[in-house]
Write a structure and sequence with these properties.
- InterPro entries: Cyt_c-like_dom, Cyt_c-like_dom_sf, Cyt_c_1A/1B.
- This is Cytochrome c-552.
- It is a single chain.
- Helices cover 43% and strands 0% of the residues.
- It is built from seven helices and no strands.
């Protein structure tokens, strides 16, 4: 079917094609960038009045108490979908992570039979809403060395809604 000469011709054709593209790219670079791009003045300049867009807008930090007062547990149920992969809501039903039934207000290492990493115990004693809020933003930064591999929830509204939902499930 194929002999050595045929394979040599095919390989030579492929290599020759790549060589043509390589040389073509080199010639195009030389042609289009030979003028020292940026060494000359623009041919036509559009004057744009300063709209004051250069001002730095400072983010307003809303206190946690105000955010938590406006929290919606129904929206928090939707935010819980990201947690459902590792955590369960039923009491005693541990997954990859401990169950979250009654998590708001309970001690950090209160779930019997779950092997905690110890990093959370060093940082915190009780899961208050404020502590959960800080933890959910970035678990690895809050408790370095934690086993939890979740990257965090950036939206403050989503975090307070999730905390309100978790607080509502244990009556």
């Amino acid at each position: 079917m194929f002999d050595t000469m045929t394979l040599t011709k095919i390989a030579g054709g492929l290599f020759g094609t790549f060589l043509v593209f390589l040389l073509g790219g080199w010639v195009a670079e030389t042609i289009y960038h030979a003028g020292g791009h940026g060494d000359h003045e623009q041919a036509y300049v559009i004057d744009v009045p300063d709209s004051g867009g250069g001002e730095v807008v400072e983010e307003v930090q809303v206190p946690f108490e105000e955010l938590y007062a406006l929290a919606d547990a129904a929206d928090g149920e939707g935010a819980f979908r990201a947690c459902r992969a590792c955590h369960a809501l039923e009491d005693g039903n541990n997954g990859t992570g401990p169950h979250l039934y009654g998590v708001v207000g309970r001690p950090v290492d209160a779930v019997a039979g779950f092997d905690y990493s110890g990093a959370l115990e060093e940082v915190n004693d009780v899961w208050t809403p404020e502590q959960l809020f800080a933890f959910l933003e970035n678990p690895a930064q809050y408790a370095p060395g934690t086993k939890m591999s979740y990257n965090g929830m950036r939206s403050e509204t989503d975090r307070v809604n999730l905390i309100a939902y978790l607080d509502s499930i244990d009556d």
